[in-house]
Every structure is written in C-alpha cells, then in structure tokens.
Design goal:
Blueprint lengths: L1 H5 L3 H13 L11 E5 L2 E4 L4 E4 L2 H4 L8 H13 L10 H14 L3 E5 L2 H16 L3 E5 L8 H4 L5 H4 L10 E3 L4 H7 L4 E6 L15 H12 L2 E5 L14 H4 L5 E4 L10 E5 L18 H16 L2 H16 L7 E7 L2 E6 L4 H8 L3 E2 L1 E4 L2 E4 L7 H13 L1
Parallel strand pairs: 3-13, 5-6, 5-7, 7-8, 8-9
Antiparallel strand pairs: 1-2, 2-3, 4-10, 9-10, 11-12, 12-15, 14-15
Helix pairs in contact: 4-12, 5-12, 13-15
Length: 391
C-alpha cells in the first residue's frame, strides 16, 4: 500500500505542471489529483481510494455526489440556471422559507461564499446600528476579503494588506469580561464563531455565548454568529448555536449549505434588515444554487444526518482518545467537527495519512482537524484511527 500511494503517473505530473504554470500559487496543495468521489470516499486519477476526513473543509456534509443532490442540480440546470435578482424564482423563495424554519431567524439574504456572508453581515450591522466598530475574538477566522479580513485574527493574513477597512478589536476567546471591557458606544456588533474552526476547534464554556448575548443587549450592539463552518449538522445540530440556546441578531452561512455547490447566505431578525438598494449580489440565490441547497437540506433531514453527526462524532472522539500516539494533548469537538491537539506540528500526520489512504488537514500548526462527511461509517472511522495509531 505504501508504495502504491507514493507513485505518481505522468498524467498527474502533467496536471501539477499546468497548475504551476497557469494558476496563481496561493495554495499549499497535497500532491494528488482527485477525480471522483462517493459518500465519504474520494478517488484520484491513479485509481487510489481515500477516506475523506476533510469534506472540502466542512462542505460536503452529505458526502460526495449524493444521488439526490446530483439529480436536483441536473433537473434545475435543464430548466433555469441564472436570471439575476431582477426577477422572482421559486427555488429562492422556497430555500429562504426553509432556512428560516431551520434557523429560527426571520429574513435571509443570499450571496456566494462565507466571506461574502461576513461582508454582508458587517454592512447590515453598520446600517442598522449607525455604528462602525466590531469586536472579534483572538484566533478567529471570518474570511479574506478586505472587510472580513479586518475581523480575522491571524496577523499573517492581515499585515500584507494594510491599511484595512478597519481594525477589529480582538479579545481573548471564551472571556466574558474581555467582551464587556471592549464595548464602546460605537460598537456595532460582536462577531463570534460558536466553535472556532480555523483557530483550532476551540469550544466555549456552556454559558459563554449567553453572556455575550446579554452584554450585546445591555450595550445596544448586535450579535453575529459566524456559522459558515459549524452549520448544517456539522456539530450535531442544524446550527451550533442550538447547543447553547442562544439566538443571534445576524448569522452567516455557507460551506455545507449547497452540499458542495458554492453558496452563501445571512439570516437575521426581521427588524435587522437591508432596505432596497443597500446590498446586492448578481449571482446570489440563483436557481441552481438554491436547488442544490434544498436538496442538501432534504438529505440531511431524511437521512437523519444531524443525529448521525452526534453519534459518529462521539464514537470518533472516543476512539481517538485511545490513541497512544506520542505528543497527543487533547481530543475536543462537537459532532463531526473534531480537533486533535498535539504538542508539536502535525503536518507529518497529514502526509502519513495521505500515504495510507486517509485525507486529513491541520487547522493550526498543532491541531489536526477532522471533519468528514456526516455519513461516514464506523468502519471508516476505525481505519482512520488505525492509520493515526501507526503514525
């Protein structure tokens, strides 16, 4: 197996060469060319099989190429793909209703990605409060466009592009007093990932978000939850906020919303809304994206993937905690959003996994992020754990 997973064909090398020549080299890619997938499995052009523990970075919650999703995209593509928001379409209205029902929010705005959703949330907070400042958390990640970048913590992402639209006021994660102290009369909103993803799968204490909600209410500031990575069953609930019993004023969504089809959205309270002309997105909520999202939500519901996320997440974490791997510090997570903390860099584990048919990802230098499709089997989980044990 080791030799087979190490070999590369001339076809793979040709694709690497084309990418190097014609694509801006902004990504640190793994040296494989993926060509197809089914459920929690992926295949490269060499014909090798991989258990996917990345899911397109928490995107493919219903697995790869689910038949219901594929059929919905095919049917909609045969009828109507794009007309712009100058007109009404049935899939958009249906999806808006569905998102309101599962989120408990009241109004929806559609865009194309997570970072666009954050940009929309920032604009919405400013226009509704008539204030300009934002409080964000250390180790947060909210996107890389100029507005969202202002609220993304890691300095290496922000410094090359200064001056930014503004500098977010970053305070320590899970520190209620820090939020309270950072509040000013000009604070428009506090933005929080209910579980921090890129920052290392950091989980707050049970009462933290409730206290942040209280502080925002006391100070006339809005509360934004960034559920781009945590939404649509990833943590064992429709949205991670449901674990904590806290409702934000604005919530961002993307990643898993379309089952792999690019899409983003924000949801908000009825009285926190854009007026006509205050924001727009040419492709936002196009019929094809909405059809994909409706199909993905349908699969999550019918196949009980939220329950499965909880059960498989508990099982996965239990098995990971049995590892005798040197340097293992902690296993933490909610549902199938799992972080494995080490006392050293974990990039070698990603490479070891790939060479043994497992796709993994480090979300910080020392945290292995495990976020497989929600329909991953116990058999595949056991194989992943065995490969990590070998490391």
């Amino acid at each position: 197996m080791q030799k087979d997973y190490l070999s590369l064909s001339s076809e793979s090398q040709s694709i690497f060469d084309k990418d190097s020549k014609f694509v801006m080299q902004t990504y640190g890619r793994q040296p494989i060319v993926l060509s197809s997938g089914k459920g929690s499995l992926l295949y490269d052009i060499e014909g090798r099989e991989y258990i996917d523990c990345v899911a397109g970075i928490a995107v493919n919650n219903i697995g790869h190429c689910h038949p219901h999703l594929v059929e919905a995209i095919q049917k909609q593509a045969e009828k109507l793909i794009h007309v712009s928001n100058l007109y009404y379409t049935e899939p958009q209205a249906e999806l808006a209703e569905e998102l309101v029902n599962i989120s408990g929010m009241e109004r929806v705005f559609f865009c194309n990605s997570g970072t666009e959703a954050v940009e929309a949330a920032m604009k919405l907070a400013r226009v509704n409060t008539k204030k300009t400042d934002f409080i964000a958390l250390e180790h947060s990640f909210h996107g890389r466009t100029m507005g969202a970048l202002s609220l993304t913590y890691k300095d290496m992402y922000r410094t090359p592009f200064k001056p930014l639209v503004q500098e977010g006021n970053f305070v320590p994660f899970n520190d209620v007093q820090a939020i309270e102290s950072a509040m000013t009369p000009n604070t428009a909103a506090v933005i929080v990932e209910p579980v921090q993803g890129e920052g290392g799968i950091n989980i707050p204490s049970d009462d933290y978000l409730k206290e942040v909600r209280r502080i925002c209410d006391d100070n006339g500031a809005l509360l934004i939850f960034d559920e781009v990575q945590t939404g649509f069953g990833r943590t064992g609930a429709w949205f991670c906020k449901d674990h904590f019993g806290v409702q934000p004023d604005i919530m961002t969504m993307a990643k898993a919303i379309g089952g792999g089809f690019p899409m983003g959205a924000i949801a908000a309270r009825k009285d926190v809304s854009f007026a006509r002309g205050e924001h727009a997105a040419t492709f936002g909520g196009n019929p094809l994206a909405c059809a994909a999202a409706l199909a993905s939500i349908d699969v999550i519901r019918k196949e009980e993937l939220i329950r499965r996320s909880r059960e498989m997440g508990e099982y996965f974490q239990k098995q990971l905690r049995k590892l005798s791997t040197d340097g293992l510090v902690e296993v933490r997570g909610k549902g199938l959003m799992i972080g494995v903390q080490f006392d050293r860099k974990c990039a070698d584990l990603v490479e070891h996994g790939r060479k043994n048919g497992i796709l993994l990802n480090c979300t910080s230098e020392t945290v292995l992020r495990i976020a497989p499709p929600l329909n991953i089997s116990k058999e595949h989980i056991d194989r992943v754990v065995n490969v990590l044990e070998q490391a």
